[in-house]
């Protein structure tokens, strides 16, 4: 798939969820994305990497689209915007990144939600939709996620989405300019697990 196909509406990739749908970002999404991010800056910044000075510019958005397309073509990441189904309002974003094949068959889930849409269930629905996409469409075996220990809403969200808390990583990611510890979560595909032979049984 060419870069322009990925950026254009004709790309057709769309993932349905409960009350939401996920699709790749388009040039036409810029204004809604900029307004949502700008209005949510103080809400989001404590949980994200430091924003570049030009982060909300059209040029930066275009660079994002190009990077998104490149990652998708390489099969290493699947970035989506999240939209509310009832009115197609942009509510946030979600990405399956660091996709590894071979003996791993796994990827990492990350997400953000605009402040106006927080605690309304759209992000949970998006995580569940991306989980099904990862396991059913991409045939991955395992998903991982991480959040700051103090981010209790995110910890609860991941638990409700089926992820299990698995560990604690020191200085795991640089968030808002500081290397921060993270709680690690994991989820193994029930679809793949059902196909695995029983342990200790010769096949």
Automatic annotation (TrEMBL):
Gene3D superfamilies per record: 3.40.630.30
N-acetyltransferase domain segment(s): 20-190
InterPro entries to which the protein is assigned, alphabetical: Acyl_CoA_acyltransferase, GNAT_dom, N-acetyltransferase
Listed PROSITE patterns: GNAT
Keywords assigned: Acyltransferase, Transferase
Superkingdom of this protein's organism: Bacteria
UniProt keyword annotation of Cell inner membrane present: no
Keyword Acyltransferase in record: yes
Recorded family membership: Belongs to the acetyltransferase family. RimJ subfamily.
Protein's name according to its UniProt entry: GNAT family N-acetyltransferase
Source species: Phenylobacterium ferrooxidans
Lineage of the species this protein comes from: Bacteria, Pseudomonadati, Pseudomonadota, Alphaproteobacteria, Caulobacterales
């Amino acid at each position: 798939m060419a870069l322009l196909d990925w950026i254009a509406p004709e790309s057709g990739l769309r993932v349905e969820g409960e009350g939401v749908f996920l699709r790749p970002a388009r040039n036409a999404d810029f204004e809604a994305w900029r307004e949502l991010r700008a209005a949510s800056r103080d809400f989001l910044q404590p949980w994200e990497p430091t924003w570049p000075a030009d982060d909300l510019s059209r040029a930066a958005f275009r660079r994002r689209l190009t990077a998104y397309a490149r990652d998708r073509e390489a099969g290493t990441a699947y970035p989506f915007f999240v939209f509310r189904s009832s009115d197609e309002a942009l509510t946030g974003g979600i990405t399956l990144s660091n996709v590894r094949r071979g003996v791993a068959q796994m990827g990492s889930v990350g997400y953000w939600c605009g402040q106006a849409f927080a605690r309304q269930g759209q992000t949970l629905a998006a995580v569940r939709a991306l989980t099904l996409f990862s396991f059913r469409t991409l045939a991955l075996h395992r998903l991982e996620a991480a959040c700051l220990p103090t981010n209790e809403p995110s910890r609860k969200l991941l638990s409700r989405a089926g992820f299990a808390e698995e560990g604690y990583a020191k200085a795991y990611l640089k968030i808002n300019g500081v290397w921060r510890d993270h709680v690690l979560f994991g989820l193994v595909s029930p679809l793949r697990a059902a196909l695995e032979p029983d342990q200790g049984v010769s096949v």
